[in-house]
Amino acid sequence: MLDCIIVGSGVAGISAALTLQSNQKSFLLFGSWSISEKVSKAEKIHNYPGLSDVSGVEFCEALKTQLKEAKIDVKEEKVAGVYALKDKFTVMTQEGNTYESRTVILACGVESVKQIEGEAEFVGRGVSYCATCDGFLYKGKTIAVFCTTKRLEHEIGYLADIAEKVYLIPMYKDVQIQRDNVTIIRKMPTKIDGGLRVNTLRFAAPPAEDIPAELPINGMFMLRECVSPAILVGGLETADGHVVVGRDMSTNLKGCFAAGDCTGRPYQYAKAVGEGNVAAHAVSEYLK
Ligand SMILES: Cc1cc2nc3c(=O)[nH]c(=O)nc-3n(C[C@H](O)[C@H](O)[C@H](O)COP(=O)(O)OP(=O)(O)OC[C@H]3O[C@@H](n4cnc5c(N)ncnc54)[C@H](O)[C@@H]3O)c2cc1C
Known about the structure:
With 288 residues, this protein is of the alpha/beta class. Helices cover 24% and strands 25% of the residues. The protein folds into 2 domains: 2-111 and 226-287, FAD/NAD(P)-binding domain (3-Layer(bba) Sandwich), CATH 3.50.50.60; 127-223, FAD/NAD(P)-binding domain, CATH 3.50.50. It has helices spanning 11-22, 37-41, 56-69, 131-134, 153-162, 229-232, 269-287; strands at 2-7, 27-30, 74-75, 79-84, 89-93, 98-106, 127-128, 142-147, 165-170, 182-184, 191-194, 198-202, 214-216, 219-223, 238-239, 242-243, 256-258. Bound molecules: flavin-adenine dinucleotide (FAD).
């Protein structure tokens, strides 16, 4: 069994991976070889020691090179759920694979787009974060898909193959998906509503001439770069959307640690890197 699974390939996750490697621990780093959208978006970074005037893209390239030199692989799978068992963790990915480890470090960042009213209330009752896990439930049905990043566009295609009608609400500009059953809405919904299950997506006003302000839907997919850690890990203690951690980055779940933006402000590289390092040392201590 692996010593540790790191969820997230931003600077917090990479820092944890480098430290675990020097502590000779076995681990998997889940995320993407594009590292982190947030890192690459920075125009210029001025406040990271040793780097003056570097762009986010250059920083990403340097991180990639460092991972390759250290022979650390990034497992390009999206973690859909982390399950704490007695003395181990089972991690399931949207790609349908399962992994086991003795510890977990959550370094999954924070989503900058706020939750929609009703989103948390209807999780598991029509609101889903995983197209490949739950898409089959909506065969021949009408769904809405809220997508924050172009990187997840392939999941919209997957859903459009299954559902009869898809209302797509993209939070990015150059949408490339073109399907007869996909209608794009460029307005932010105000509420996900329903009874036992989701049945309506509400907007402040009709988002288009032929689309009502109260749109009947059977389900709602939230495709976000970062899913809230509380949704990812059942029983995890959070406050204001952040993971509650101790000085050693431990959470309320034995063997589960967290680092970076997901533990709270300030959202900064230096804090994320430091916390990733502390979490990895705490994992090594815990494994003793
Ligand atoms: C435009 C912009 C400019 C910025 N400029 C600066 C700056 O100049 N200086 C500074 O100090 N900070 C800056 N920041 C803040 C900085 O980017 C963040 O503090 C930092 O990226 C946090 O690192 P992180 O590793 O915690 O999270 P992130 O960088 O957000 O990385 C999280 C990673 O986890 C992955 N992930 C999430 N969920 C899953 C999952 N379920 N399965 C697999 N992978 C997952 C994501 O895809 C992502 O790759 C800026 C942020 C922005 C948006």
